[in-house]
Amino acid sequence: MSKQSRLISLDVLRGITVAGMILVNAGQGDTFAPLKHSAWNGMTPCDLVFPFFLFIMGISTYLSLRKFNFQMSSKVVWKIIKRTIVIFAIGLAINWLGSAVWGDASLSHLRIMAVLQRIALCYCVVSFFAILVSHRYIMPCIMGILVIYAVILLIGNGYTEDPSNIAVAIDRAILGENHLYHTAVDPEGLLGTLPAIAHTLIGFFCGKLMMETKETNNKVLSFMIAGATMVFVGYLLQYGLPLNKSIWSPSFVLMTCGLAASLQGLLMYLIDIKGKKQWTTPFLVFGVNPLFLYVFSEVMAILFGRFGVSEVLYNGIHTVVSNTYWTSFFFALTNVLICALVGYPLFKKKIYIKI
Predict the structure, then answer these.
(1) 5 pLDDT exceeds 60?
(2) What is the reported pTM?
(3) Which residue of 101, 115, 313, 354 has the fewest C-beta atoms within 10 A of its own C-beta?
């Protein structure tokens, strides 16, 4: 349980993002195009939720380590290592559970990487960067990572959706074919974690911007300018380096970080300046316990699918809603509402489960 005051606008953005992650993951059968990931190049609203979370995690990492003045100590190092291991291990456990409930408990085909594993690695690297490297090198590091990654993509067939892609070669060499996601390119592969680290560093830099800018009006303006600049640069870059979530392309990093920064600026304006907070409660429920509710949703989806609950829910909705696209949407929304019912008592009692 935490008694510290929380930044409401950031919790709201985090809540919107986590609720969105659960919504897009829970769809069954026919799904509206905006709720599906882009097939390869391009970007849909569904493609925004994970990058938004990494951006927010970057801000949160700055706020968390700021309490320790970004100084290395055994306490801080242990905190970083422990959280990295816990998040990564939970991700592995979810991957294992997804196979085990259907009868394959063998570790020989366990997928190593996934959403939580990438979150863990990005958190770890950015946290150690924060306590080991001068923060004046943040922007040069971000630009350096993205430039190096762009070169790797261009010379390594990084935009090719087949085994010639360097990302595929690296994953197969290090993780092995049996431990990858069963698509041409693992969307949470090892190479794509490199730009995801730069992505999280951008969030970290925006956290620095947020705390070092005194007036709320200036915070909003700074976020809006930073967001618009990144969206503009990302938009231009896509003509040479197309938007692509699966490989986490540099244009994708800048475009999604720009949109996240802009939305954070808008939320600060509405909530912190205008005081419009009445609508925020549903998102705060998800925002104060984000990883716990995300993990709960993943476990729930696996168990509901295995024991027929998902089928019963889907068919029950379908008897009322004949259109299969809307059936899928309301089924996914039902999953979000179940998670909200779990999270609401925690929110009301100010219980914050740290993962």
Answers:
(1) no
(2) 0.95
(3) 354
